[in-house]
Amino acid sequence: MTLYSIPAHVAFVDALAQGLIDRTAGDKLALARALVLLPNRRAVRALTDAFVRRADGGLLLPRMMPVGDLDDDSFDRLAGGDTTLPPAVPALLRRLELARLVRAMPGSREAGRSAVEALRLGDALGSTLDTLLAEEIDPERLRSAVENAELAEHWQATLAFLDVVITAWPPARAAMGGSDRGTRVAAMIDALVARWAKVPPPGLIVAAGITGSSPPLVRLLAAIRALPAGLLVLPGLDTDASPAAAARWDAIRCAAADIEPAESAGRDSESHPQYALKALLARLGATRADVADWGVATAQDGPAARTAAVMAAMAPAAAAADWHRATVPAEAFAGVTAVEAATPAEEAQVVALALRRALAEPGRSAALVTPDRALARRVAAHCRRWGLLVDDTAGVPLRLTPPGALALALVEALAQGFSPVALLAVLKHPLVAAGDDRVAWLGNVRRLDLALRGVRPPPGLESIAEQLERWHADAADRRRKSSMTQDRVVALAARDKALAAWWETAAVMLEPVARIADRPDTDLARLAAALRTTGNALCGDTLWRGPDGRALAALLDSLEADGSVFGGFPLDDAPALAAALLSDIAVRPGQGGHPRLRILGPLESQLQRADLMILSGLNEGIWPGRPAPDPWAAPAIRAALGLPGLARATGLAAHDLVGGMGAPRVLITRARRDASAPLVPSRFWLRLQAYSGGIAPDDGLLALARAIDGRGQPQPASPPMPTPPVDRRPKSVRLTSIDTLVSDPFAFYAREILRLEPLDPLDQDPTPA
Question: Strand locations in 421-534, DSSP E?
Fold first, then answer.
């Protein structure tokens, strides 16, 4: 037997690690000679941790590789370097080249397409190309598919854009001396399969947790299955042999090769959690009867009855006619609770309290699983109030880290001509002058803030210096007319001179970025070089420290090297373009979070396990997410080409949810509305609630979340009654000030006695004066 499955209620990586240890128990070096292929790098790290937990004093780990990175050097060495294809074109370089091709198309400039819009369309074009290459479909077939499909007129016009992939991209790729990643991956797989056919590897070869069914990946898995010591371990296959389960399985209309044509795969089937696994088995030429149970139990397994119940709740419509007559065992949803919060903020508070409560039980672990990154960041922030650092394995967008925020603020200041608000956002950034001189720097920034109050000065750093001169002259004039002592006047004049000298130094630091505004447009290479120079001047080495600083440095390196490919763009487009580039880079922290708390992505919920799994964000559009429409390939085109449907992502999200529901204890949460509108419950939430008859609500946790920040009885404050000394009180009151004296005595006191006037706002609109 070479084909196995680990049920959804069994902790996947722990069971996999224990099973591999058991299978190599007779040979101490057998495990070290083994090769384990996993879906991604996070799965590799999770399996490594699982082996460490079972090391029992010492263990030689197998070689573990993520199939999501099949084009890295380690896999090339594994394939023996037999592929003749050059390395794949770097991702950023390909992205910029595709965007340039989109911008160069006839009509692009006439349509007023911005630089960031061209980047977005280029990204979608690259995604379409990747999908075609993964399915080994020649892009030339796009032309015939569009011409033959019965499409609206605007889809027919799309053929002109798809010509970028068909005609323009191959010579551009050849000029860069690289290959497409999908083509190179397929070539490396074929080279490895050919090598194994000649000389089978001596050790154990295991592919675990993989659900993809692209032709190159299927060839790799089939080759592993044919090896003398090859094993395939599937995650969460429904192996229930009951008539009801068999009917559910048969109702999944699979679009895999040799089963049914692609257009017959209904949306209901593609959105089923078992669809991807059935397609994979079909392409491998196997059935459920060929799959054996892995046969390992762990301490973090949930009840088997729950897996059966969740699978029944997720049944396709064709096999769900009698769901309301089904008998649900009492133990199926024991340990499962639900919380329906009012808002996402309240949901985050609930989740944070659930994580904190889990730590009260010695040795227990808890994990939050959600595709909502904003919710994950909120939960991590709430946990910090108790001193708990929780690692988010999905990372944080570089744009939201301090180095990324500073880079974006510099670009925004450039685009706005160094307007006061944008300039002060740069100068007040916590990384700027982050040393012993920080206090003095902020003192000068605050005085600059006072000087820039009022109407926005003209664009440019020179106008800031002119504004300072006018402000100093006005201040000196006011001091001469006041009753201020001469020593005080001299001290303030010296401070003004120090501010002017400080601004000269600050302006020199900002000059590299400011020089970009000398021309009406710029390019990414010049912008990246200016950001690097200015960042060094403002922050020194502080800007480049840590994972986020290194990520920003790597991005600027790539843009300096390849950014000119994108071409020129107006300065007004720079902030949106920079935000898009910074947002697409995830910064993952190093190890160091709490050992018993984690924040995981949905894919990891079926591979990793905690004693308490919190599945959050169960609203339509979040879990599952809304299928992103492909601007280049209409559904009819995808069907004609045999590409996966857009509903496939819903099926994968359902599979992830089933894996998360297998924990001993589960908490599912959602918010009823956000800041804009009521939210629709996820179809998964509704199915689970309906099939179970209503999951037990955790009202105590919700009440605690609502009370933790204090919603007690308000204590009204006494009305303000300022009583200044009699000799300081005005002897006469203007008639227009009487209303202020009655309604806001403090405002009257500040203006008439303390002689304070409100500051003009920054970037004030011009007044009639």
Answer: 521-522
Q: CA 107, 115, 122 angle in degrees (round to 5)?
A: 75
The closest alpha carbon to 764, from 464, 470, 452, belongs to 452
pLDDT tens-digit readout, 97-146: 999 888 887 665 545 678 898 899 888 888 888 888 888 888 888 777 76
Tokens describing residue 363: 């040795």
Residue tagged 């937990």 (tokens): 53
Burial of 177 (0-12, 13-18, 19+ CB in 10 A): exposed
What band does 427 get if pLDDT is binned at 50, 70 and 90?
very high
**Cβ(4)–Cβ(290) below 8 Å:** no
Asked if residue 94 lies in contact with residue 119, where contact means CB atoms within 8 angstroms, the answer is no
Average pLDDT over residues 385-407: 91
Query: Which whole-number Å values give the CA distances from 110 to 163, 181, 531, in the listed order?
Result: 19, 33, 31
- Report the amino acid identity of residue 574: A
Angle between helices 546-562 and 524-539 (to 10 degrees): 150
Residues whose CB is less than 8 angstroms from the CB of residue 278 and which lie 6 or more positions away in sequence, other chains included: 249, 252, 254, 256
- Determine the residue type at 299: A
Helix (H, G, I), strand (E, B) or coil at 221: helix
CB-CB neighbours of 515 under 10 Å? 15
Average pLDDT value over all residues in the chain = 86
pLDDT digits (tens, 9 = 90+) for 588-625: 877 668 889 999 988 887 788 899 999 999 999 999 98
Distance, in Å, from the CA atom of 239 to the CA atom of 7, rounded to the nearest integer, reads 8
CA atoms within 13 A on the CB side of 145: 23
Model confidence at 208, pLDDT cuts 50, 70, 90, reads very high
DSSP 248-294: HHHHS---STTTS-GGG--HHHHTSTTHHHHHHHHHHT--GGG-EE-
In this structure, what is the dihedral angle of CA atoms 153, 156, 158, 161, given to the nearest 10 degrees? -140
| Tokens standing for residue 574 | 């720079």
What digits encode the pLDDT tens for the residues 631-656? 777 777 787 787 887 788 889 999 99
pLDDT tens-digit map of 143-172: 777 666 666 666 666 766 777 778 888 898
User: Is 235:209 a contact under the CB 8 Å cutoff?
Assistant: yes
Instruction: Return the closest-CA partner of residue 300 out of 761, 665, 705, 675.
Output: 665
In angstroms, rounded to a whole number, what is the distance separating the alpha carbons of residues 13 and 46? 7
Cα distance between the two ends of the chain = 88
Backbone angles phi, psi at 520, to 5 degrees: -70, -20
- Residue partners of 490: CB distance under 8 A and separation at least 6: none
* Residue 509 identity (one-letter amino acid): M
How would you classify residue 252: left for phi > 0, otherwise alpha for psi between -120 and 50, otherwise beta?
A: beta
C-alpha dihedral sign at 119, 121, 122, 126: positive
Residue 111 dihedral angles phi and psi, to the nearest 5°:
-75, -5
